[in-house]
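I am hoping you can look over what I have pasted underneath with an eye to the fold:
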Amino acid sequence: MGQAEKLIAGNRKAFHDYQIVEKIEAGLVLQGTEVKSLREGKASIAEGYVAIENGEAWLMETHIPPYSHGSGANHDPFRKRKLLLHAREIRKLDAKVKERGYTIIPLRLYFSEGLAKVTIGLAKGKTMGDKREAMKEKEAKRDMERARRPRTPSDRG
C-alpha cells in the first residue's frame, strides 16, 4: 500500500504567469541534509527554473534552507540539483525550449512514497492581456458560484 504524497512547496505564481502546456514528474538528486530540511517542510521553488546542460536536466534557483540541526557540512541552499528524467524526455524538453517562448519551471515539490519528486511544467509565458482575460474568467466563475449558492438569513447582513 503506497503512501500519500506530502506536498513540500507549490508554485501558484507559475499558473498566473505561464500557460502550462505539459507536466512531467521527475526525481531529484539530493544530499542528506537537503532531504532532512525538506522533511521539515521548508523549501521555495517560486523563483526556480529548469536548465538543460549536456543532455542533463538541472533544477536551478530553488531554495532549500540548511538543515536546522546540521553541522558545518550543511549544503548550499541555492545549489543546482540534478533532475532524474529519461533521455527522450530531456531531448523533447530541450527541443521545445529552443523554440521561442517556452521555458521549464517547477510546479510542485513533494515526497511520494518516501522519494523527493518535483513536477515540472513546460510553459509558455502569458502576455498581460492573457492574464487580464484569466482574471475576468476567474471573477465570472466566482460570481456564478455566488449566485448559485442558496441564500441564508445570515447572508442578508
Remarks:
- The longest strand covers residues 18-28.
- The mean pLDDT is 83.
- The chain is about 30% helix and 35% strand.
